[in-house]
Amino acid sequence: MSLRVLAAAGETFEAPSAETFWQPLIGSGAFAITRPAIVYALSVVLIAAVLLWATKRLAVVPGKRQMTVEAVYGLVRNGLARDIIGSHDFLKFVPLLFSLFTLILVNNLFGIIPPIQYPTMSRIAFPLALTLFVFVVYHFVGIKRKGLGGYFKSMVPAGLPTWIVPLVFLLELLTFFVTRPVTLALRLFGNMFAGHIILVLFILGAEYMLLHGGIALKLVSIPTFLMAFVLTVFELLVEFLQAYVFTMLAATYIAGSLADEH
Amino acid sequence: MDGNLAIVGYGLSAIGPGIGIGLIFAAYINGVARQPEARGMLQSIAILGFALAEALAIFGIALAFVFS
Amino acid sequence: MQHAALALAASTAEVPGNPELPVLPHTGELIVGIIFFVILYAIVAKKVVPRLEKMFAERRAAIEGNVEKAERAQAEAQAALEQYRAQLADARGEANAIREEARQQGAAIVAEMRQQAQAEAERITTNARAQIEAERQQTMVQLRQEVGRLATDLASRIVGESLHDEVRRRGTVDRFLADLEQTPTVTSR
């Protein structure tokens, strides 16, 4: 309905679509350097610089910046890795989980930090790249721990009736090789993508109504801006949550591959 | 008004996960109310369940774009 | 939405690299994603996590070390207290012994002094008695001579010079004195 009203006002309003996210900066085609690629690279440089700077001189009694890094590190190390993977062999996976968490968190936060305002993870390529590592790691540690045959055997829970085993095995195979990586990547992508579209829709819509609409629409644009603000705060929550969920699921998959029983 | 039927499909696909996530957090709140000391453990389980239920809605939005 | 679809079609025609569906990855971005994640992972795994883990280990060691130190200090304090108590008990015993000894010595000294004083007193008494006896004897002798002479003088004055005959005089005087001694008035002086 709003579209019709706006169209009647004279100019056309283009609702944000998937096309909004395609922003090549240098070159074109499959290997174009796009805006999210640069933001992603920037985030890696930023994280690496901050982490190296904050851990340059570590004291037993922490200072302010060390405390911040330690809080994030402690969340990943103790809250995720140790609790989910178990205290025996969680330390090997702490670097992976820590870099995943910080990278996703910073890239998500870029979605609402003003000069950048582009959630990198709303381009499926980046969640997919991260998922690829998780995928390789959890299969690798599973096969290394149990052997190739043992790994596939451990997918099926013990004590099932014989006739149901092939069915369950097929389902588990699907879970391990398709559902898990696809949902892992799509969850992050979908949340960021949808959240960013909603934000863009509200802000562009409010702007359009304010600039091109009549008096009634100008008034309506005020609650629309407010809504955009509320949704930005909501996005902040979702961004934290998704970074946490991605890391937690990665840890859960690794723990599942390491566990002796299915 | 014009639009896309795929988006309606996404709306339908979001109903199930919406109910599921509601149930998960209802159970989580119940659990914390009964045993506040189990909060930490329940929290990670609740978020895990939330993530798994949410996956269905995410499939919905992905497929909505595939078929739009 | 029609406009959007048109725009989509137009832009895909302009930039063929972008996949038509948002769920398909853009190759360049995928490569960037992989490469930079490897870089970040290498830095985190080689530098950041070892540093943090080393610090955690140090902190744990420091905490354990402090606990150990405190325990040691407590044990030392306990030992010192025991030692002090033992010393105190020793000192107390010694003081008692000294006091007891002093009391005994004092008693001995008092007894000795008393004995000495008694002996002295006895000696003085004996001396005094002996002296008195001697003086009495001397006085008796002197008195006897004096009385004899006085009596003779008196008698000669009474009876004249006839009585100066030695032998007779001695016998008479002696006899007179013996009488004198035997009379109750003289003995009961």
UniProtKB/TrEMBL annotation, chain A:
Coiled coil: none
InterPro entries per UniProt: ATP_synth_F0_asu, ATP_synth_F0_asu_AS, ATP_synth_F0_asu_bact/mt, F0_ATP_A_sf
Signal peptide: none
Pfam family, one: ATP-synt_A
Keyword Membrane: yes
Membrane topology per record: Multi-pass membrane protein
Key words of the record: ATP synthesis, Cell membrane, CF(0), Hydrogen ion transport, Ion transport, Membrane, Transmembrane, Transmembrane helix, Transport
Main subcellular localisation: membrane
Compartment(s): Cell membrane; Membrane
Membrane-spanning residues: 37-55, 90-112, 124-143, 155-178, 184-204, 216-234
Gene3D superfamilies: ATP synthase, F0 complex, subunit A
Cellular component terms (Gene Ontology): plasma membrane; proton-transporting ATP synthase complex
MF terms in GO: proton-transporting ATP synthase activity, rotational mechanism
Role this protein plays: Key component of the proton channel; it plays a direct role in the translocation of protons across the membrane.
Entry-linked PANTHER family: ATP SYNTHASE SUBUNIT A (PTHR11410)
Family per similarity comment: Belongs to the ATPase A chain family.
HAMAP family: ATP_synth_a_bact (MF_01393)
Name of this protein: ATP synthase subunit a
Gene assigned in the entry: atpB
UniProtKB/TrEMBL annotation, chain B:
Annotated keywords: ATP synthesis, Cell membrane, CF(0), Hydrogen ion transport, Ion transport, Lipid-binding, Membrane, Transmembrane, Transmembrane helix, Transport
Record membrane topology: Multi-pass membrane protein
InterPro entries: ATP_synth_csu_bac/chlpt (IPR005953), ATP_synth_F0_csu (IPR000454), ATP_synth_F0_csu_DDCD_BS (IPR020537), ATP_synth_F0_csu_sf (IPR038662), ATPase_proteolipid_c-like_dom (IPR002379), F/V-ATP_Csub_sf (IPR035921)
Compartments it resides in: Cell membrane; Membrane
Chief localisation class: membrane
Example GO molecular function: proton-transporting ATP synthase activity, rotational mechanism
A Gene Ontology cellular-component term: plasma membrane
Annotated ranges, domain V-ATPase proteolipid subunit C-like: 7-66
Protein name listed in UniProt: ATP synthase subunit c
Gene giving rise to this polypeptide: atpE
TrEMBL record, chain C:
This protein's GO CC annotations: plasma membrane; proton-transporting ATP synthase complex
Predominant location category: membrane
Keyword Cytoplasm: no
Subcellular location: Cell membrane
A Pfam match: ATP-synt_B
GO molecular function: proton-transporting ATP synthase activity, rotational mechanism; proton-transporting ATPase activity, rotational mechanism
Superkingdom classification of source: Bacteria
Coiled-coil portions: 60-101
Annotated SUPFAM superfamilies: F1F0 ATP synthase subunit B, membrane domain
Keywords assigned: ATP synthesis, Cell membrane, CF(0), Coiled coil, Hydrogen ion transport, Ion transport, Membrane, Transmembrane, Transmembrane helix, Transport
Membrane spanning residue stretches: 27-45
Membrane topology: Single-pass membrane protein
InterPro entries xrefs: ATP_synth_B-like_membr_sf, ATP_synth_b/b'su_bac/chlpt, ATP_synth_F0_bsu_bac, ATP_synthase_B_chain
Function: F(1)F(0) ATP synthase produces ATP from ADP in the presence of a proton or sodium gradient. F-type ATPases consist of two structural domains, F(1) containing the extramembraneous catalytic core and F(0) containing the membrane proton channel, linked together by a central stalk and a peripheral stalk. During catalysis, ATP synthesis in the catalytic domain of F(1) is coupled via a rotary mechanism of the central stalk subunits to proton translocation. Component of the F(0) channel, it forms part of the peripheral stalk, linking F(1) to F(0).
Family, per entry: Belongs to the ATPase B chain family.
Subunit structure: F-type ATPases have 2 components, F(1) - the catalytic core - and F(0) - the membrane proton channel. F(1) has five subunits: alpha(3), beta(3), gamma(1), delta(1), epsilon(1). F(0) has three main subunits: a(1), b(2) and c(10-14). The alpha and beta chains form an alternating ring which encloses part of the gamma chain. F(1) is attached to F(0) by a central stalk formed by the gamma and epsilon chains, while a peripheral stalk is formed by the delta and b chains.
The protein's name: ATP synthase subunit b
Organism of this sequence: Kineococcus xinjiangensis
